[in-house]
Design a protein that fits this description.
Helices cover 9% and strands 43% of the residues. By secondary structure, the chain is mainly beta. The chain has a six-stranded antiparallel barrel with strand order 1-2-3-6-5-4. The two termini are 14 Å apart. This is Pyridoxamine 5'-phosphate oxidase putative domain-containing protein.
């Protein structure tokens, strides 16, 4: 029911990704893109800086919709630095990246967020969610954000 709203919010709004570096939390604005296989890709809006994930690759993505709906996605963040000359290495993300990501002068960081939980709270306070099975996220590629199957939100 709300799966398409989650996908639309990810692709239409800037999202904010929180990580922890040592003892210091960091929040960065990014653009979200869903690949053809349902994988969640993020493009850094702060092009000069790359997330350092030495000891902690866990991240939380947050976005807020125009109607006050709140999206929170938790998962494992994998940085994949690229330049336009090496884009073919990321074939899943390539078709969904914006045109400015393909410009020859651009050098940025692309991230893959392996999603292990999605929480979507609508304006009336009801929360809908999907969590990956406990203990299986290490061996799986995460929740694929394709509305219907396998991405189905249920009410809390």
């Amino acid at each position: 029911m709300h799966e398409q709203a989650v996908v639309n919010l990810l692709q239409e709004k800037a999202v904010f990704v929180g990580t922890v570096e040592g003892v210091r939390p960091r929040v960065r604005p990014m653009l979200g893109f869903i690949g053809p296989n349902g994988g969640l890709w993020l493009l850094s809006l702060v092009l000069k800086e790359r997330v350092t994930l030495t000891n902690n690759d866990q991240a939380q993505l947050c976005a807020m919709g125009d109607e006050g709906d709140l999206l929170q996605i938790n998962g494992f963040l994998e940085p994949m630095p690229f330049s336009s000359g090496s884009m073919s290495q990321w074939t899943e993300a390539e078709s969904t990246l914006p045109k400015h990501a393909m410009d020859a002068d651009l050098s940025a960081t692309l991230y893959r967020l392996r999603v292990h939980s999605v929480y979507y709270t609508v304006r009336d306070g009801k929360t809908f969610y999907q969590q990956d099975e406990a203990g299986k996220i290490e061996t799986m590629d995460g929740i694929r954000l394709i509305p219907g199957a396998p991405f189905r939100l249920k009410q809390e």
